[in-house]
Amino acid sequence: MFGVRLKPERATTIVALNRLTAHTKEVSELLARALDHNGNGCQNYLTQIKVINEQCNEFVRQVSEQLKHSFITALDREDIYALVMSLTDVLHRLDKFAGRFSRYRPSQCPPEMIRMVDLINRMVQEMGRALPAIDRPKEIQPRLKTICTIQREGNEICRAALSKLLRSSRPPTDVLMYKDLYEQLESIIDRCGNVGSLVERISIKHA
Question: How many domains does the chain fold into?
């Protein structure tokens, strides 16, 4: 399906996947900077995330329309569409978190939150390395294993952070705010894990 066996019409879809992956990586990096600069220009980074997400929405609409009229087999169209929508879901959730963070304007970012954003950034980077090798299952296995390991670590950090939060003496409004932000980040981590699982299934099917 991919790589050296690409047909000309399929190359366009791979370019689309690469573009979405690059945008996802850019957004995750912007989010990391926003948390690092909380209260000091972070709104600029959050605004950039929203702009990128809106651009990607239009791009995905165009790709979806192209797939309807392509000469790729229906099965391949389904695989490509699933990948496009999975990557888009990660982007949307990153934008959703950025929006919540912007509205809440927390006075500080706990180290667990910063760590979770860093893990998301690493998962996105591994996704970007795995996609070009999707037709080579053995080559992408280390990438997918890393994604799975990071996902477990992220879930563990989230559980520990929530437990710590509920045992803290923070005001109830702060508890609810941070709980929401942690759960938003955990959902992003899980969606990145879903992309990894999807890449593995498609890679095995078309090997």
Answer: 1
